[in-house]
Amino acid sequence: MTPSRRRVLLKLSGEVLSGDQGHGIQAKALARLAEEIQEGVRGGVELGIVIGGGNIIRGSTQRTDGVDRAAADSMGMLATVINAIALQDSLERLGLTTRVLSAIEMRALAEPYIRRRAVRHLEKGRVVILAAGTGHPYFTTDTAAVLRAVEIGADVLLKATKVDGVFSEDPMRNPAAVRYDSLSYPEAIDRRLQVMDMTAFTMGMDNRLPIVVFNVTVPGNLARALRGESVGTRVLVEV
C-alpha cells in the first residue's frame, strides 16, 4: 500500500440491501449503495467489504425456531454470499473491478479467502467483497469485519448502520439520547454502549483499530465516510 492510499474495511448489514421493503434485495437500495461506493473510492481508497445476510435469513431467528446453532449460523453465512454476489454485480455495472472472496469454499461462485490474495487484490485497486463471515459458526459478521480489517491492515473500519452513530441510549426509545462525536474504547465499555458485540469490540481494541459508526441510510453518508470526512461517531483507542 502506497502512503497516499487509504485502506478501508466497510461493514454493511444485509438489511440495508432490502431498502424500505424490509426483506430480500431491493434494486433501488442496492444501486444507491453501489453508486456511493463508486463515488467514495475515486480518491484512491483500497476497499474491502464484509456484508451480512439478515435481509435473507438471520441465524438468531432460526435458532429460536429450533434449528441447531451451528446449522443456523451456516445458513446465515450462505445468505451473505448471495448478498456479496448481488453487490458485485451492481458495482461491476458501474465499471468497478471486484472480487468476491468466501470463507466457505465454493469455487464456482467465489475465490477462497486467503489473506495474501485479498491484500493483493486491494493493491491492484479491486473492491474486495468478503463473504461467509469467518467461515465458522458462533461468530457474528461484526467479528468477521474486525478480523478481516486487522488481517488486511485496514486503517479504519466503517460500520454502516441505520442510526447516526453511537448514542448514550437507544435513540429509538429515547429521542433525547446524546450522540457522541468520538469516544474511546474504554469509555464505550464503561458506559456499556453497544457499538458491536464484545468479541468484535475487544479484538478491535487489542489491535488499536479505529471504528466509525454512521448512518448509511442518509444519502451521501457512505461516500463521505469512504473519503474520510467526518460522519457519525469515531471510536478510538484514545480520544
What does this structure look like?
The chain has 239 residues and is α/β, with parallel strands linked by helices. The chain has a domain at 6-162 and 226-232: Acetylglutamate kinase-like (Carbamate kinase, 3-Layer(aba) Sandwich). The chain is built from 8 helices and 11 strands. It has helices spanning 27-40, 59-64, 69-93, 115-123, 141-152, 185-190, 198-206, 221-227, and strands spanning 6-12, 45-51, 98-102, 111-112, 127-131, 156-161, 166-167, 179-180, 182-184, 211-215, 233-236. Strands 4-3-5-2-1-6-10-11-9 form a 9-stranded mixed beta sheet, sandwiched between helices. Helix 1 (27-40) links the parallel strand 1 (6-12) and strand 2 (45-51). Helix 1 crosses helix 3 (69-93), helix 1 packs parallel to helix 8 (221-227) and helix 5 (141-152) packs parallel to helix 7 (198-206). The longest helix has 25 residues, at 69-93. It starts with 5 loop residues before the first strand and ends with a strand.
